């Protein structure tokens, strides 16, 4: 590295993390955009980009092809390195788990499902998850810089305990983050410096899904993003404020599943009745349609497929979906009145509902909320198929985004 470049990099070293995040989230496709976003000189932006490239995190195309009809020399193009390091991401739900390798940019490199009943011992389940992930890493031959886990429970911070794994047989308060880290250590998965163990992180599945949608999906560009969706069972919510996931004082914010939307409605596992959790999840849809979920796939996948494939042709499905849409709209209207988000993204079964009849859903929200009547709250479907996996990966990527040199041993 020349003395000039060294001097420029020292000036811009604090910009390495912000620069990487801009490329990671697709906001800086060229060096010119990176220069403007960081507010630095072109030379400093060039040194920062070159350092990120030397770390194997991004690629820099110094000779891009200019679009036909344009004049002048096109700016260097920046992109995440498709052959760069990855993180191990995993999601556990009531019907099984899935492990994946995820690169920068939210790109899933490899994935492997593990289906069947989830053991009552979280150590047994997470051990299987990590074993599956370790095999993916061995097959891919990629450098692993972290590991993230998404679970269907509020995860208390800073303890890393699953406080309410209501749809799993796990004991409330299970130390899932510590168990996950112990499993990673037992598997001997090396960290960024080459020495095991890699560091593991854990979070609520919908919280991390919101983070993924904000950085890589339908929530990109929103300042205050509300995400509501169904898991394989139940309903959750999450809020991203000014680009950061809002988890409250101890990780328990936005437990929206227990908003009451029908006081005389279905019993909820929390002990109340008519909660959003009980009125708008896959089980509620099957019940309203007079159907039962089959054994061949998860209830979430079956319910979503039923709406997408039969909403226009089966009156019973259309009525059932309409009932859920109306209940969901009431819940969203209450959240809009309290939180005043600038965008709402719906995931899981709720994604299928808004795709089937978004006008009806948006109409309920507008009629029942002060801010909704202004017409300024878009309600749209999520755009990521594995948002919780990508979000779990974001937990693991965050230390690298915060300090690339420090996290990677530079």
From TrEMBL:
Entries under Pfam families matching the protein: ROK
UniProt xrefs under Gene3D superfamilies: 3.30.420.40, Winged helix-like DNA-binding domain superfamily/Winged helix DNA-binding domain (1.10.10.10)
Entry superkingdom: Bacteria
Signal peptide per UniProt: none
InterPro entries the UniProt entry points to: ATPase_NBD (IPR043129), ROK (IPR000600), WH-like_DNA-bd_sf (IPR036388)
Family, as annotated: Belongs to the ROK (NagC/XylR) family.
Protein name listed in UniProt: ROK family protein
Organism name: Streptomyces axinellae
Lineage summary: Bacteria, Bacillati, Actinomycetota, Actinomycetes, Kitasatosporales
């Amino acid at each position: 590295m020349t003395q000039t470049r060294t001097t420029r990099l020292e000036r811009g070293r604090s910009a390495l993390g912000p620069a990487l995040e801009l490329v990671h989230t697709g906001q800086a496709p060229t060096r010119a955009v990176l220069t403007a976003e960081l507010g630095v000189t072109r030379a400093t932006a060039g040194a920062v980009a070159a350092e990120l490239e030397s770390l194997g995190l991004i690629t820099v195309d110094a000779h891009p092809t200019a679009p036909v009809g344009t004049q002048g020399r096109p700016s260097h193009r920046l992109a995440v390195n498709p052959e760069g390091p990855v993180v191990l991401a995993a999601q556990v739900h009531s019907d099984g788990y899935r492990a994946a390798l995820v690169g920068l940019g939210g790109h899933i490199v490899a994935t492997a499902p593990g289906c069947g009943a989830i053991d009552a011992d979280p150590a047994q389940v997470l051990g299987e998850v990590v074993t599956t992930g370790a095999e993916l890493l061995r097959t891919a031959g990629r450098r692993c810089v972290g590991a993230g886990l998404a679970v269907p429970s509020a995860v208390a911070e800073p303890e890393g305990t699953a406080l309410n794994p209501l749809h799993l047989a796990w004991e409330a308060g299970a130390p899932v983050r510590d168990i996950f880290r112990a499993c990673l250590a037992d598997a001997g998965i090396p960290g960024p410096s080459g020495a095991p163990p890699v560091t593991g992180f854990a979070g609520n599945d919908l919280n991390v899904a919101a983070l993924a949608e904000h950085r890589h999906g339908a929530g990109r560009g929103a300042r205050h993003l509300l995400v509501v969706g169904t898991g394989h069972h139940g309903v959750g919510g999450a809020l991203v404020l000014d680009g950061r996931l809002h988890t409250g004082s101890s990780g328990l914010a936005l437990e929206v599943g227990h908003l009451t939307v029908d006081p005389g409605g279905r019993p909820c596992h929390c002990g109340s009745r008519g909660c959003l959790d009980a009125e708008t999840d896959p089980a509620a849809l099957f019940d309203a349609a007079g159907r039962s979920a089959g054994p061949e796939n998860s209830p979430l996948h079956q319910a979503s497929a039923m709406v997408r494939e039969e909403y226009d042709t089966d009156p019973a499905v259309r009525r059932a979906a309409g009932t859920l849409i109306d209940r969901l709209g009431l819940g969203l209207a209450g959240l809009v009145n309290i939180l005043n988000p600038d965008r709402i993204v719906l995931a899981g079964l709720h994604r299928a509902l808004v795709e089937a009849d978004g006008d009806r859903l948006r109409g309920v929200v507008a009629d029942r909320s002060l801010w909704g009547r202004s017409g300024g709250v878009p309600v749209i479907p999520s755009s990521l198929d594995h948002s919780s996996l990508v979000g779990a990966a974001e937990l693991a990527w965050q230390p690298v985004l915060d300090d690339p040199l420090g996290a990677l041993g530079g």
